């Protein structure tokens, strides 16, 4: 139905008959790239969260938190952000920086001031268009700054960016 209706946000369960949430998220990324996938599940395993983020999902809400967090999560992902259930967020990014890199995580070495701004705004959930508006630059420039910074840091996924952002204090409640 999502491919036919093309909604802004698709809420799906991780455990479903026929196709699981990981496979469906991957499929939707190619067949319905404008749909943002939010997973609502009972599974508190960080490997699920990391895998879902790698295949294109942008939100993960535990059913135990749904009454408080589901609407907030839907609004966050619809606005272009990423939403991780607070109960699982710390677990999800634990170990995200385990692979070796040329640049030490947290050092910020080699990143320009603009690249840092773009990564920080991305990590807290702003879309490329919103970042362009905030910084007064074009969307293509934002994409270039983000790609260059991710490459310099050796990051290949949002999970790694969120882990880095957490280590930098960018996601702290203020």
Describe the structure.
- With 174 residues, the protein is of the alpha/beta class.
- The chain folds into 2 domains: 2-93, Rossmann fold; 113-168, Arc Repressor Mutant, subunit A, CATH 1.10.10.
- Helices cover 52% and strands 9% of the residues.
- A 4-stranded parallel β-sheet has the order 1-2-3-4.
- Helix 6 (113-123) crosses helix 8 (139-153).
- Residues 97-108 have low confidence and may be disordered.
Number of separate strands? 4
Mean pLDDT: 80
And the CATH topology of the largest domain?
Answer: Rossmann fold
What is the percentage of strand-forming residues? Answer: 5-15%
> Roughly how many Å is the radius of gyration?
16 Å
Q: Give me the CATH architecture of the largest domain, please.
A: 3-Layer(aba) Sandwich
Topology as H/E string?
HEHEHEHEHHHHH
Helix count from the secondary structure assignment: 9
Secondary-structure class: alpha/beta
Unreliable spans: 97-108
What is the count of distinct domains?
A: 2
Helical percentage = 40-55%
Just give the CATH class of the largest domain: Alpha Beta
In terms of quaternary structure, the protein is single chain
| Largest sheet report | 4 strands, parallel
Classified in CATH, the superfamily of the largest domain is Response regulator
């Amino acid at each position: 139905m999502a491919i036919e209706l093309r909604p802004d946000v698709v809420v799906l369960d991780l455990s479903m008959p026929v196709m699981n949430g990981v496979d469906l998220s991957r499929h939707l990324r190619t067949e319905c790239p404008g749909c943002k996938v939010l997973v609502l599940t009972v599974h508190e395993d960080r490997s699920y969260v990391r895998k879902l983020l790698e295949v294109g999902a942008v939100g993960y809400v535990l059913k135990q938190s749904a009454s408080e967090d589901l609407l907030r999560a839907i609004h966050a992902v619809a606005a272009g952000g990423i939403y991780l259930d607070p109960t699982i967020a710390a677990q999800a990014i634990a170990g995200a920086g385990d692979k070796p890199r040329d640049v030490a995580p947290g050092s910020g070495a080699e990143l320009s001031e603009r690249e840092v701004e773009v990564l920080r705004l991305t990590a807290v959930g702003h879309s490329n268009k919103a970042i362009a508006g905030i910084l007064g630059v074009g969307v293509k420039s934002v994409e270039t700054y983000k790609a260059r910074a991710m490459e310099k840091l050796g990051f290949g996924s949002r999970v790694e960016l969120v882990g880095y952002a957490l280590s930098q204090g960018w996601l702290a409640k203020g």
